[in-house]
Amino acid sequence: MIVDDDPLVRSGLRLLVGGDPGLEVIAEAGDGREALARYAADPVDLLLMDLRMPVMDGIDATAAFKAAPNPPAVIVLTTFDADEYVVRALAVGADGFLLKDTPPAEIITAIGRVLAGEPALSPSVTAALIKQVVDGRDGNRESTAREAVDALTGREREVAVCLARGASNAEIASELYMSVATVKAHISRIFTKLDAANRVQVAIRIHDAGLT
User: Fold this and answer.
1) What's the CA dihedral at 181, 198, 161, 173 to 10 degrees?
2) Mean pLDDT over all residues of the chain?
3) Between these two residues, 23 and 137, which has the higher pLDDT value?
4) How far is CA 136 from the centre of its chain?
5) Which of 64, 127, 188, 191 is the most exposed place for a label (fewest CB within 10 A)?
6) In which band, very low, low, confident or very high, does the pLDDT at 134 lie, cut at 50, 70 and 90?
7) How do 73-78 and 46-50 pair as beta strands?
8) What are phi and psi of 102, to 5 degrees?
């Protein structure tokens, strides 16, 4: 589903996504509330979600979608000068984000990665977002993060540090000499132990704990 209050943006994204033989645009919505209603009638696997919209913005909508059982994947769409909104969206569970000037081929690649359980965040953008959060951290958050990270095994900590650098599952598997299936199993346990909904939340906790 494409969720954006600009009809021209929705049309462009529909043409782009619909042109890929492996993807199908099921629905469009002009704001978060409309998206929730359309999803209730016809569920989808992934939403491309604008952030700044009337009625219900992308942050509140993402939070609502992610609070539901078996939630869909959500990639938020933004401009770089709105990165504080992206941090908030990722904090409520968004699976990644794309800048609105992202090349078409990269948008398709990002959608495929998220549908496969991979992040749609480049290492440079991940680092910028984490820096924004970490710069404002306090001592309580640091101590909380250290306590959570202490619950990780040594191998889980190695995987978590790789995640914090923005590495994909395949890259982690290659670096740590393990199978992709094993990496996925470690990541699942890391998410649980760190109470994280996505890779960026893991990265923030790792940075708060002083491991990167």
Assistant:
1) 20
2) 84
3) 23
4) 21
5) 188
6) low
7) parallel
8) -65, 135
